[in-house]
């Protein structure tokens, strides 16, 4: 009787083990297509880019097929380039200026649209227009607006007697970066408004009603109710904004092409010029890997801060 019981238990365990293995295999088969797609679309380009940055990869390589291994020489060349420090500074100014104003203006508009009023939904839909337009179209439009002699902005400013002479928005090294940052702010505001508005919509109205009983109205309600509940969404918005803005290329190329006098040259535009203007693909890959590394640092910082907030 005992032997029979042991045999029955062992048979059930084998059946249960086969069932678990079958379930695990089914899970793997469902995940496998996505994993293959991720490796093919993201993994291979990243690895290939890393290998290119360690080789003397030029236009000649496409014909000869031979790209000599040079190690870290490409990284050394781009870091010691006289434009690298200026590009780093411009990248930092472009990213910080864009993110700061996009977030502040986006948060203000999200708070404004949280108040229900007639045509509020229509205005929110129209606000998405800059985000939906192709970036090259937005760049061409703003380039015509910011033209020094015939642009509508200078004509308006001179018509209102705010300025006496046309402002060289895209032609002056001291003004061009500010103009490019302004255009990028205009493009990025809808993204911030959309995510922050969705975060505000998740805050229960009961919290504000309870806060009013304790005198938490106006700015007090914002600091003690809105911001603590919106902090996680704000972190995601800022993180995504940094990762997106730090690699912006088409807006700058469409407006100034990195000029005048390299005043709007960033790491992204410098990587583009090294690869597709000078045909030094190895150095271009090295610059793009530096951009990836910077984005990765921000991602790690965000994940660690999020984990710390969850633990607390």
From TrEMBL:
Keywords, alphabetical: Cell membrane, Membrane, Transmembrane, Transmembrane helix, Transport
Annotated PROSITE patterns: ABC_TM1
Cellular component, GO annotation: plasma membrane
BP GO terms, sorted: transmembrane transport
SUPFAM superfamilies: MetI-like
Membrane-crossing segments per the record: 28-47, 92-113, 125-145, 175-200, 221-246, 281-303
Chief place where the protein resides: membrane
Localization (cell): Cell membrane
Domain ABC transmembrane type-1: 88-302
InterPro entries: MetI-like, MetI-like_sf
Membrane topology classification: Multi-pass membrane protein
Family: Belongs to the binding-protein-dependent transport system permease family.
Protein known as: Sugar ABC transporter permease
């Amino acid at each position: 009787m005992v032997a029979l019981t042991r045999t029955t238990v062992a048979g059930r365990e084998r059946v249960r083990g086969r069932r678990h293995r079958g379930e695990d295999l089914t899970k793997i088969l469902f995940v496998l297509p996505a994993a293959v797609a991720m490796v093919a679309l993201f993994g291979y380009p990243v690895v290939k880019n890393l290998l290119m940055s360690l080789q003397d990869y030029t236009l000649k390589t496409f014909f000869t097929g031979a790209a000599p291994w040079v190690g870290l020489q490409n990284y050394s060349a781009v870091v010691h380039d006289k434009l690298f420090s200026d590009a780093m500074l411009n990248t930092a100014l472009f990213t910080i200026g864009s993110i700061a104003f996009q977030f502040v203006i986006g948060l203000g508009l999200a708070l404004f649209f949280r108040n229900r009023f007639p045509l509020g939904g229509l205005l929110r839909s129209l606000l998405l227009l800059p985000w939906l337009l192709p970036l090259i179209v937005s760049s061409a439009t703003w380039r015509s607006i910011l033209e020094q002699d015939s642009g509508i902005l200078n004509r308006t400013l001179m018509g209102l007697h705010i300025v006496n002479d046309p402002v060289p928005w895209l032609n002056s090294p001291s003004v061009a970066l500010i103009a490019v940052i302004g255009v990028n702010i205009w493009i990025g505001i809808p993204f911030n408004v959309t995510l922050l508005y969705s975060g505000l919509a998740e805050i229960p109205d009961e919290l504000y009603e309870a806060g009013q009983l304790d005198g938490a109205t106006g700015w007090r309600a914002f600091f003690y109710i809105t911001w603590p509940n919106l902090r996680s969404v704000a972190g995601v918005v800022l993180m995504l904004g940094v990762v997106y803005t730090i690699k912006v290329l088409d807006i700058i190329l469409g407006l100034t092409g990195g000029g005048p006098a390299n005043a709007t040259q960033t790491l992204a535009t410098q990587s583009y010029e090294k690869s597709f203007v000078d045909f030094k693909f190895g150095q271009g890959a090295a610059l793009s890997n530096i951009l990836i590394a910077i984005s990765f640092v921000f991602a790690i910082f965000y994940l660690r801060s999020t984990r710390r907030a969850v633990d607390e």
